[in-house]
Specification:
- This protein is mainly beta.
- It has one domain: Porin (Beta Barrel), CATH 2.40.160.
Length: 187
């Protein structure tokens, strides 16, 4: 039943997007920093564990930090007087400064107020599995230049793709909080 509901929702949403009169698309680079709470991914970023290790996670460690670099595609739909509907796709690579490759892809649906304040939520896919990302931010405008600044939170999860220890314990991935900046051009 859940699958049918999800499929129906996705079909209706795609029809809405394809027939929307006021569609505007933008894209541009995105970069920032992610702070990770103690957990599986934090251990990997800190160099205390390799992907697939079967040793326990040290939840007493300090948080980890990694840079993020990627690209954002944005589609503005259903433009109103004060609000604009948004669909965003964001592909990021994290940890390159430490020689680690941590890819992620997120799809967010949200709204932006005419003054630039925005909020969005959606699924994210990464080595730590499938989860939700919650984001808020503000887009500053100067002529045709748009500069979005966002704060995003991805809750910790146990359905990751990094491997579980042999004893079957579920390992927490750790929460991630990101501060991201980007730019694109358009009205």
């Amino acid at each position: 039943m859940k699958k049918k509901t999800l499929i129906l929702f996705l079909m209706a949403f795609s029809i809405f997007v394809s027939y929307s009169q006021n569609v505007e698309k933008k894209s541009g680079p995105k970069f920032g920093i992610t702070v990770l709470s103690p957990g599986l991914l934090g251990d990997i970023i800190n160099g205390d564990r390799k992907i697939g290790d079967e040793k326990p996670v040290d939840y007493t460690q300090n948080q980890a930090m990694m840079t993020q670099l990627g690209w954002q595609w944005e589609t503005r739909i259903a433009e109103g007087e004060d609000f604009v509907g948004l669909v965003e796709w964001i592909a990021l690579i994290g940890g390159l400064e430490q020689g680690i490759f941590v890819p992620s892809v997120s799809t967010l649906m949200g709204i932006r107020k005419s003054g630039g304040l925005e909020a969005a939520v959606g699924p994210t896919f990464s080595l730590t599995g499938v989860g939700l990302v919650f984001a808020v931010g503000h887009t500053f405008k100067s002529g045709d230049l748009n500069v979005p600044i966002n704060v995003a939170w991805v809750p910790s999860r146990t359905n990751h793709l990094l491997g579980d220890p042999v004893d079957g314990m579920k390992l927490e991935s750790g929460h991630g909080i990101s501060v991201m900046v980007g730019f694109n051009f358009g009205k």
